[in-house]
Amino acid sequence: MRAQELIDTLKLAPHPEGGWYREVFRSAAQVSPADGRTPRQALTTIYFLLEAQQHSRWHRVLSDEVWVHLEGAPLALWTSDAALRTPPAHIRLGPVDVHGTHPQHTVTAGRWQAAKPLVTPGSADYTLVNCTVGPGFDFNDFSFMQPDSDEAALLRHHWPALAELI
User: Fold this and answer.
1) Nearest partner of 22 among 43, 40, 48, judged by Cα
2) What is Dmax (Cα atoms) for the chain?
3) Which of 48, 83, 104, 114 could hold 165 in an S-S bridge, CB 3.0 to 4.6 Å?
4) Where are the domains of the chain?
5) Which tens digit of pLDDT belongs to each residue from 39-69?
6) Residue 150 to residues 20, 77, 85, 146, 162: CA-CA distances in angstroms?
7) What is 2-165's CATH topology?
8) How confident is the model over 7-40, as pLDDT tens digits?
């Protein structure tokens, strides 16, 4: 019930990578990324909500992205380098605890990332986060891991449990 209340109150819409979102800020200031992309807004932020059965598909963004846990179940966030040369790192976002959970993590530009709520009996059945991107988010800088790609084949071979997030 809380997830639906947040979807309604925050006016969230379906996100292409899964879950629900709404952009809440787009800076008026523009910057020119050093990698040659055309100018982008300096900063953008969104609310992003994943319900228990949802996940954020493997994707990458050409700008840095800061994830901040706001409420609900902890979030499992996996990241890996652009070529999947190293095992995906698992970060647990949520209230600080003795098990290494922290409320914030930055995914640097170009890294693969995927996420899903860590719902357990008695926990919330959703996760609400804030994602801030700088230089600001532009769908031209966003790409999904394609199911027939070399990266997807590597993921299925070396880390089959994470292939469900493709």
Assistant:
1) 48
2) 48
3) 114
4) 2-165
5) 999 999 999 999 999 999 999 999 999 999 9
6) 28, 22, 12, 9, 15
7) Jelly Rolls (2.60.120)
8) 999 999 999 999 999 999 999 999 999 999 999 9
